[in-house]
C-alpha cells in the first residue's frame, strides 16, 4: 500500500533499555549479549527437539511423528538464521591491521607492504573479536623479527619493501588464517641456544625442527637482544597460542631460512552448534563434526589384524587410519562390520575406525571442564535426545602425528601432507 509506514526503518528512541538502536536503511543494532542469549535458547531448543524426536520415534503415532518433523524443520531454520546473524566477515578487523602496518613501517624504518586476501571470509563474531589482538601481535612480531632492513634485503636480491600476507579461507568446518612474511625466517640455532639457556631443552637433546620452532610459543620465551616497544618483554606468542587454544583452534609454524615464516591458525566456524555424525565405538557414542566427514567405507577384513600397516587404499590413494577404540580406551567388543569414517583436517585426510554409524545429529557444543580441556582427541560434549552425553571428537587433534606418536612411527609424515 502506498504511503504505508515501514517498521524496520522506524527511528529508535534514545537510551532504549534493551540496547537496540535502529540505524536506518532497514538495519538495526542489537547488543551482543542479546545475540548470545538467543543462541543459548536456540541450543536448548535443538536439545528439546532431539528429545521429542526420540519420543516420537518410539511412540508409533503418525500424527506425533508428523508434528515432530515440522518442529525439526523449524528448529533447523531457526538455528541457521541465528548462526548467520552471528557471522562476521574478517574485514571488520582488517582496517586496524593496515593502520598498524603503516605506523610500524614509520616506527622501525622498514617499508612494508601488507596484502590481505579473503577479507570476505566469515567467522563467528566471538572468534573474530578474540582474534584481533593475537593477529596484531603476529604482525608486530613479523615486522620486527622477520623482515630484514632494506639494505640487507637488497643485498640478498629481495625488494627493499618487506611483504606481509594475511590470507583467510574456509576449509571444511574450519577457517584457516595464514600470516606469512618474506623475511629472514626463524633462526633455529638461536632458538635452540635460548631454549637451553632458559632450561626448556637440554644441551645434547635431539629435536625435530618443527618442534624446535614451537618452543617460541612457550611462556616468557623471547630471542630479542634488547627490550623495545615491540618485543623483548617476554610475553606474546604464548598468549597467541592460548587464545587460539581457547577458541578450540590450532596454531602451526613453518619457516625457511632466507625465505620467511608462515603462521597458520585453524579455527572452527562457530563455537555454538554444528551438524555431527553420531557413531558408536565400544558401546559408547561419539560425535564427529559432519563438515569434516568426506566419506564412509567398509574396513577391509584383514585390516584389524595388521597392527603395523595402518593404511587403507581408497580409489588408488593411501589414507592412514586410527582405531578409535584404542585411542579412547573403550571396553566393548568391536562390531562385525566396522566402518572407516574418512575425515579431512586442513590439508590432511585420516580414517577413523568406528563400530557403527548411527546417523546425523544436530550438535549443541558444551565446553569441557578445565580438567578435560587439554585432551587432544576431544573438543567438547553434547546432550543427546535420550538425555545422555556424547563426546565430540577433535578431528584436527586426531590428525596430528605429534598427538599420536605410534601413527607417526608407523607412517612417514608425508602421508599426512
TrEMBL record:
Keywords: ATP-binding, Chemotaxis, Kinase, Nucleotide-binding, Phosphoprotein, Transferase, Two-component regulatory system. Its EC number is 2.7.13.3. The keyword Cytoplasm does not apply. Residues 1-20 are annotated as: Disordered. GO terms for cellular component: cytoplasm. Involved in the transmission of sensory signals from the chemoreceptors to the flagellar motors. CheA is autophosphorylated; it can transfer its phosphate group to either CheB or CheY. This is Chemotaxis protein CheA.
Amino acid at each position: 500500500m502506498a504511503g504505508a509506514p515501514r517498521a524496520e526503518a522506524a527511528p529508535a528512541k534514545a537510551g532504549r533499555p534493551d540496547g537496540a538502536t535502529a540505524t536506518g536503511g532497514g538495519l538495526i543494532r542489537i547488543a551482543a549479549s542479546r545475540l548470545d542469549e538467543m543462541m543459548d535458547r536456540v541450543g536448548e531448543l535443538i536439545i528439546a527437539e532431539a528429545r521429542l524426536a526420540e519420543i516420537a520415534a518410539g511412540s508409533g503415532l503418525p500424527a506425533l511423528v508428523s508434528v515432530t518433523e515440522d518442529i525439526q524443520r523449524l528448529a533447523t531454520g531457526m538455528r541457521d538464521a541465528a548462526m548467520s546473524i552471528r557471522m562476521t566477515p574478517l574485514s571488520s578487523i582488517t582496517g586496524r591491521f593496515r593502520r598498524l602496518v603503516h605506523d610500524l613501517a614509520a616506527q622501525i624504518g622498514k617499508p612494508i607492504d601488507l596484502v590481505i586476501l579473503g577479507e570476505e571470509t566469515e567467522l563467528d563474531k566471538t572468534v573474530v573479536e578474540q582474534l584481533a589482538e593475537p593477529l596484531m601481535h603476529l604482525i608486530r612480531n613479523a615486522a620486527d623479527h622477520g623482515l630484514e632492513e632494506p639494505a640487507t634485503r637488497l643485498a640478498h636480491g629481495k625488494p627493499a619493501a618487506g611483504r606481509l600476507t594475511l590470507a583467510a579461507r574456509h576449509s571444511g568446518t574450519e577457517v584457516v588464517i595464514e600470516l606469512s612474511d618474506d623475511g629472514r625466517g626463524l633462526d633455529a640455532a638461536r632458538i635452540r641456544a635460548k631454549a637451553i639457556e632458559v632450561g626448556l631443552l637440554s644441551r645434547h637433546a635431539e629435536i625435530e625442527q618443527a618442534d624446535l620452532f614451537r618452543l617460541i610459543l612457550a611462556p616468557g620465551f623471547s630471542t630479542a637482544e634488547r627490550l623495545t616497544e615491540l618485543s623483548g618483554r617476554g610475553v606474546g606468542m604464548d598468549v597467541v597460542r592460548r587464545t587460539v587454544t581457547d577458541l578450540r583452534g590450532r596454531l602451526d609454524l613453518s619457516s625457511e631460512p632466507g625465505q620467511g615464516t608462515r603462521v597458520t591458525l585453524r579455527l572452527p566456524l562457530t563455537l555454538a552448534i554444528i551438524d555431527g555424525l553420531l557413531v558408536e565405538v565400544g558401546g559408547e557414542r561419539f560425535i564427529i563434526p559432519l563438515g569434516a566427514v568426506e566419506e564412509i567405507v567398509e574396513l577391509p577384513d584383514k585390516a584389524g589384524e595388521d597392527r603395523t600397516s595402518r593404511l587403507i587404499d581408497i580409489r588408488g590413494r593411501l589414507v592412514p587410519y586410527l582405531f578409535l577404540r584404542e585411542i579412547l580406551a573403550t571396553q566393548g567388543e568391536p562390531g562385525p562390520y566396522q566402518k572407516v569414517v574418512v575425515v579431512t583436517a586442513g590439508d590432511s585426510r585420516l580414517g577413523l575406525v568406528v563400530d557403527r554409524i548411527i546417523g546425523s545429529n544436530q550438535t549443541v557444543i558444551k565446553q569441557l571442564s578445565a580438567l578435560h580441556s587439554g585432551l587432544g582427541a576431544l573438543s567438547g560434549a553434547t546432550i543427546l535426545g535420550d538425555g545422555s552425553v556424547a563426546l565430540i571428537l577433535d578431528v584436527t587433534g586426531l590428525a596430528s602425528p605429534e598427538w599420536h606418536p605410534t601413527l607417526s612411527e608407523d607412517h612417514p609424515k608425508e602421508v599426512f601432507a
